[in-house]
Amino acid sequence: MNSDTKQREEGKKPVFITQNQVMKDLLAKVKLVANTKATLLLTGENGTGKEVLARLVHYYSSRSNKDMIAINCGAIPSELVESELFGHEKGAFTGASEKKEGCFELADKSTLFLDEIGEMPSDIQVKLLRAVELRAFRRVGGKKEIDVDTRIISATNKELVDQIKSGNFREDLFYRLNVIELNIPPLRKRRGDIPLLIDYYQNDVSESYQMDPIEFSDECLGILKSYDWPGNVRELKNIVERFVVLYSGKEVGPDAIPSHIKGGDNIYPVNFESEFDKYIQIPIGISLAEVERKVINHTLSSVDNNKTEASKILGFSRKTLHNKLERYAKG
């Protein structure tokens, strides 16, 4: 995002770097909701910084004296998700040699961050709904109800409305988690922040690795600002770290930029300083399929990822758009 975090110490304020008005408005909302118990749903593409925003909400809340507990719902085997969330009693299942507290219990009087909530197994969604509604649960194999005061923040890079329609996500759970939605725009819609982030990361990484800072030529910065950054801030940070390691104390020129960033397969926005990328220029030598993919992505960006509106602009049905996006995602 036009922002990111430098959070090596628990409890340290996450750092957001932005000059973008949309992001400034979003940060203002964070402060407004921080001291409520309202459940939050953070939406946005991968790498935009949803966990950073969750940590900022926690930092500004009255719960910040305790650590925020985070769990990635897509990174845990489905058979272990319930135990990770709610804990288990000794002997509850094979291998349960002792009692274990789950994330809900650990996050009592604190914040529980459920990342990639769209990956939550269907059978666990029912139990999660009950825990969110009642702020109470039972450990796996347990009989006693355990009450907790846990603030829930969820995050997803998926369109949960589409997941509901396909039967992969419960509608009642969606409404419970989506009391307040905060959407983080992708980096390509905040290009003015790219130089700020580059400068921040190159200084941060140089200091961390005890290496000399680097500089970027104007041409190099122009290419980096033109790139779409599909991996968003996470991708930008990784690229800057690579440059610091390889070019310590030197100026980075366009020849150092990886081919996938500067190559002919890119379609560059003509005016990347504007709030909306209204025009694109298409280099000669790329496939029509790539042209279509980029046009669709830029159209979605211009309407805040509203697929219904993008479909109308592009002149085909929402289902066709959905099918095309799925095809692009599979490569």
Can you tell me about this structure?
This protein is α/β, with parallel strands linked by helices and 331 residues long. The chain is built from 14 helices and eleven strands. The strands form four sheets. The protein has a five-stranded parallel sheet with strand order 2-3-6-1-7. Strands 4-5 form a two-stranded antiparallel sheet. A two-stranded parallel sheet has the order 8-9. Helix 8 crosses helix 10 and helix 12 crosses helix 13.
Give the structure's gist in a few sentences.
This protein has helices spanning 21-33, 50-60, 81-86, 103-106, 122-134, 160-165, 171-177, 194-209, 218-226, 232-246, 259-262, 288-302, 307-314, 318-329; strands at 40-43, 69-72, 110-115, 136-137, 146-147, 150-156, 180-183, 215-216, 251-252, 268-269, 280-281.
Mean pLDDT: 86
Number of strands: 11
| Cα end-to-end separation | 24 Å
Element-level helix/strand string: HEHEHHEHEEEHHEHEHHEHEEHHH
Shape: globular
Strand order of the largest sheet: 2-3-6-1-7
Helical residues, percent:
40-55%
Estimated structural class: alpha/beta
Rg over alpha carbons: 22 Å
Q: Mind summarizing the main beta sheet?
A: 5 strands, parallel
Low-confidence stretches are 1-9, 264-277
Estimated share of beta-strand residues: 5-15%
Number of contiguous helices: 14
Organism: Fodinibius salsisoli
InterPro entries: AAA+_ATPase, AAA_lid_NorR, Homeodomain-like_sf, HTH_Fis, P-loop_NTPase, Sigma_54_int, Sigma_54_int_dom_CS
Protein name: Sigma-54-dependent Fis family transcriptional regulator
Pfam families: AAA_lid_14 (PF25601), HTH_8 (PF02954), Sigma54_activat (PF00158)
